[in-house]
Design a protein that fits this description.
Layout (H helix, E strand, L loop, with lengths): L11 E8 L5 H11 L8 H13 L3 H6 L7 E6 L2 E6 L8 H8 L4 E7 L6 H12 L4 E6 L8 H11 L3 E4 L1 E4 L7 E4 L4 E3 L5 E2 L5 E2 L15 H17 L5 H5 L3 E6 L8 H11 L6 E2 L4 E2 L7 E9 L8 E9 L2 E2 L3 E4 L4 E4 L4 E3 L4 E3 L2 E2 L4 E6 L8 E3 L10 E3 L3 E6 L6 H14 L3 E5 L6 E4 L2 H15 L4 E4 L4 E6 L3 H10 L4 E3 L5 E5 L2 H10 L4 E3 L1 E3 L2
Parallel strand pairs: 1-3, 1-4, 4-5, 5-12, 6-12
Antiparallel strand pairs: 2-3, 7-8, 8-9, 10-11, 13-14, 15-16, 15-24, 16-23, 17-22, 18-19, 18-24, 20-21, 25-34, 26-28, 26-29, 27-28, 27-31, 30-32, 30-33, 31-32
Bound molecules: guanosine-5'-diphosphate.
């Protein structure tokens, strides 16, 4: 079906790239934008990051560490398809942010370094995708460098992740022997642009990527065995089956080199042809279909102070149904009231632009002053909320120390802002002690402390908390829960949504408490809302 005759939701490709740091996510992102026509030259993503940092000077720590902390959204169009690439931070400490971003995509590209294979962060993120049955395309990067044997890599991925693979492209040699990339469906060999020299040092004819060529005699030493191996592999591996791909069971494998432009066009073509459009989304009362006429969406990320002069806060909303138009009023389900959506933004690769219209799968940025929190649902009046945006029990807990008691109120407000934004979690002990901050990784807390100082002028210190574990507590028996809270008052806190939390000294005390209180549920994951 031609793209124009499909519904707008069917022409959206909303995806994220998951990878271990250094596998090549930034490079691939740049090249996708380049191939998609969104940017003119490579190096732009990084350069853009620099500009943003110097312009608004926010997230001092990001600059100091040279890492990317904040996610962004990049939109580009190619052949009638709108690609929305949601960037996820690569650092392991920011996995919470990444998890939330993955709740807003319909597909993921898993980038694997051909030399390193599956790494810890790849596995973690893959598991999140699997939990949500997100379809995954596997991009094995850096084939222009020495890597593991392709067969060994495929074996590692399929057995290590229990994932069926199907071949899309195949490398002809790797590292110094790299001669090009074979496109299996197109039956063509793509070769490096530069003039190559044969093993005897003679120069060989220049070929453009994409040009169909006969494999030269001189290359048969490399090409022959590579193609034989490919043939064996094709016999062994399952054929592509779209249904199986969409269910998240079968992943097409694209060998490539983001740096040298191999496999990038194939990846975009694959997503355009076979990738899912905007998918239905589960809400508490029913499943919401993308082609429903009424607008609905949910906030998966909040970012504050993107522009320091305006002290703004932007909620990133993934649209799930309907046609969103600028100037609309939407129903804020948690607040139980309609809200005007002022100056909604698209996040194009180059700048923020005012959105006139947006469709399921699209992301819009809504400036607000704290009204919208991560997990909030917006509809045209129906009172349902989308599910699947979790809070994870923190793995690091720190107590806030702040000497300026006159500004304590200001600090509490700033901490609430940060908690709502999802920078870290805040637990307020019911006995009135200083708040405890929780995060999945320590870097998250460093970011928080740095931002409190930079943006609010509130220098705090963090010291080890007397707790190592936090669990949300619930019970079907309200009386029992009350008894539990009374008996453990010094270990009970409330999170930003006033959900009761048990703070345990360590795993051993937690286990003992769980045994003592069989009617209390101790939750490591809490769905927002
Ligand atoms: P990220 O941490 O996953 O975002 O990785 P980057 O995109 O920053 O890449 C990490 C390093 O690998 C950089 O030095 C890149 O230039 C290099 N790199 C990325 N892709 C390729 C590739 O296809 N081939 C080679 N040789 N190097 C690459």
């Amino acid at each position: 079906m031609a793209a124009e005759t499909r519904s707008p939701a069917a022409t959206r490709r909303t995806f994220a790239i998951i990878s271990h740091p250094d596998a090549g996510k930034t490079t691939l992102t740049e090249k996708l934008l380049l191939f998609g026509g969104a940017i003119q030259m490579a190096g732009h993503v990084r350069a853009r990051g620099q500009n943003r940092r110097t312009r608004s000077d926010w997230l001092e720590i990001e600059r100091a560490r040279g890492i990317s902390v904040s996610s962004s959204v990049m939109t580009f169009e190619r052949d009638g398809i709108t690609f929305n690439l949601l960037d996820t931070p690569g650092h392991a400490d920011f996995s919470e942010d990444t998890y939330r971003t993955l709740s807003a995509v319909d597909a993921a590209v898993m980038v694997i370094d051909a030399a390193k294979g599956i790494e810890s962060q790849t596995r973690k993120l893959f598991e999140v995708c699997r939990l949500r049955d997100i379809p995954i395309v596997t991009f094995i990067n850096k084939i222009d460098r020495e890597g593991q044997d392709p067969l060994a890599l495929l074996d590692e991925i399929s057995s290590g992740l229990a994932l069926d693979l199907t071949l899309w492209t195949w490398p002809i040699g790797m590292g110094v022997d790299f001669r090009g990339l074979y496109d299996i469906r197109g039956k063509r060999l793509m070769m490096p642009r530069e003039v190559r020299t044969d093993p005897c040092g003679r120069s060989v004819e220049v070929k453009e990527p994409g040009e169909v060529i006969e494999i030269p005699e001189v290359e048969s030493r490399i090409a022959g065995p590579a193609l034989e191996e490919m043939a064996l592999c094709l016999e062994d591996l399952p054929k592509f089956d779209r249904a199986s791909f969409l269910e998240g069971h079968l992943s097409p494998v694209i060998f490539g080199s983001a740096l040298r432009d191999f496999g990038v066009g194939e990846l975009l073509d694959f997503l355009a042809q076979h990738g899912p459009g905007a998918l239905p989304r589960a809400a508490n009362v029913r499943t919401v279909e993308p082609d429903e006429p009424a607008v609905s969406g949910f906030v998966f990320k909040v970012q504050s102070n993107m522009d320091r002069n305006h002290r703004d806060r932007v909620a990133f909303v993934r649209l799930c149904s309907g046609r969103f138009r600028a100037g609309m009023k939407l129903y804020h389900v948690r607040e139980k009231r309609p809200v005007a959506i002022n100056a909604p933004m698209f996040f194009f690769a180059q700048q923020r632009e005012t959105a006139d219209e947006a469709y399921p799968g699209d992301i819009i940025g809504i400036p607000n002053h704290g009204l919208l929190r991560v997990g909030d649902t917006l509809t045209e009046g129906e009172a349902f909320h989308f599910e699947g945006i979790p809070n994870f029990a923190p793995e690091v807990l720190r107590r806030v120390i702040f000497s300026d008691s006159l500004r304590a109120k200001q600090l509490h407000k700033a901490l609430s802002d940060m908690a709502e934004e999802g920078v870290a979690q805040i637990f307020r002990p019911v006995n009135g002690a200083w708040p405890i901050l929780g995060a999945v990784g320590t870097l998250q807390l460093e970011v928080l402390a740095s931002r409190l100082d930079q943006e609010y002028g509130l220098p705090i210190k963090l010291e080890n908390a007397p707790y190592e574990m936090a669990r949300w507590v619930k019970s079907e028996k309200p009386e029992e829960l009350k008894r539990f809270v009374e008996a453990n008052r010094s270990n009970i806190a409330e999170d930003k949504d006033e959900a009761l939390t048990f703070l345990a000294k360590n795993a051993w005390t937690l286990n003992r408490t769980m045994e003592e209180w069989p009617d209390i549920r101790f939750l490591a994951v809490r769905e927002r809302n």
